[in-house]
Amino acid sequence: MAEIVAIRSELDEDALVKAERDGGIMRLVLNNPPANALSIDMLAALQEAFDACAADRGVRVVVLAAGPGKVFCAGHDLKEMNGHRADADGGRAFFDRTMRECARLMQSIVSLPQPVIAAVDGIATAAGCQIVASCDLAIATDRSRFGVNGIDVGLFCTTPAVALSRKVKPKHAMEMLLTGEMIDAATAREFGLVNRVVPPEYLGQIVGKYADTIAAKSPTAVRMGKEAFYRQAEMGLADAYDYAAGVMVENMLARDAVEGIDAFIGKRKPQWSGE
Question: Alpha helix (H) ranges present in 21-126?
Answer without folding.
Answer: 40-55, 78-83, 92-111
